[in-house]
Design a protein that fits this description.
single chain, 262 residues, 7 strands
Amino acid sequence: MDLGLEGKVALVTAASKGLGRAIATELAREGARVVISSRDEEALSETAGEIRQETGAEVDYRAADLTSAEDIEALVSHAQGRFGGVDALVNNTGGPPGGTFGDLDDEAWQGAFEQILLSLIRCVRGVLPLMRERGGGRIVNVASSSLKQPIENLTLSNTFRAGINGLAKDLSQSLAPDGILVNTLGPGRIATARTKNMDDSQAESRGVSVQEVRGEFEARIPLGRYGGPEEFARVAVFLASQANSYVTGQAILVDGGMVRAM
């Protein structure tokens, strides 16, 4: 299938590693020109170089703190200056701290709001004029499986990932006349460094082996294994592509069937 990404411009946030990097790599593999960002300029430079070498695509980068309105504005301007606009935006961020409602103070709530939801709002606001100039675009939000089912001890993530889904649904309706499609993806247990850290932390707190923790999760996944970052990325890339011409406003899980919610 031709995804229609050859020569298109994609902006991917939090892309120096993990799911963001995997998505950026698959976009580049399909011929897109890609701008990646994270807070770590050294890691960005290394990642951009590796993706270029692997795919032969044009890959640029700019460091940005997604809690900073000025950094996001500069990031979008950089993408426009480097490649002339933005056709696809992939909103990705790190996860907020764990904890239950009783563990969290105002500072934690404000920080998670700025990291997860306000950053997305600012990125979308920044690219909309560029997408409208180009006659349309694609917005893909990377969230969590908590889109469908809350995750124990992750109250902040449960709250703000649901907020992303609500905003995406609203945007999908208001932006449809502009040819801009908006969807949200929720990863399940994908084999990234963050997932490994979570497994390690749970194993340590329970006094069991990491293998035992992982085995428990795998037993809850119908496909019987953790997903690979590239498996998640391929779904994101389809939604960000021109081949996706009729899917918008959807919250889709890439979780091997783990979440039982409808």
